[in-house]
Amino acid sequence: MPEVKRFIFDDVPLFHNAVFKHTPGASPVLLFLNKDDETVQKVELSGLTRDDCNNLLLKKGFYKKSSEDAEVPEKYRNGPYVEKEEL
């Protein structure tokens, strides 16, 4: 699970509209929320690689910035995001 930890601490901060919330003792999961903050999909991360985790968010249409303070293009600032068939 070291790759998932690197994803959480190094990569999640680069994704626009992605937030890490620590839950002690819980396995890492990725929750996709709708505009009303209701969970629409839950993905267990413990069996994934860092690349798998990154590709999952990219495929879901999330924007990954080059640095934490980089500008986010207008089309990515608000959802809903459109799932991509290919990266």
Automatic annotation (TrEMBL):
UniProt keywords, alphabetically: Selenocysteine, Signal
Region (Disordered): 66-87
Gene Ontology MF: a single term: oxidoreductase activity
UniProt keyword Flavoprotein, yes or no: no
Gene Ontology cellular component terms for the protein in this record: endoplasmic reticulum lumen
Keyword Phosphoprotein: no
The Selenoprotein F/M domain, residue ranges: 1-62
Domain of life where this protein originates: Eukaryota
Chain segments annotated as coiled-coil in the UniProt record: none
A Pfam short name: Sep15_SelM
Family, similarity comment: Belongs to the selenoprotein M/F family.
Name of protein: Selenoprotein M
Lineage: Eukaryota, Metazoa, Spiralia, Lophotrochozoa, Annelida
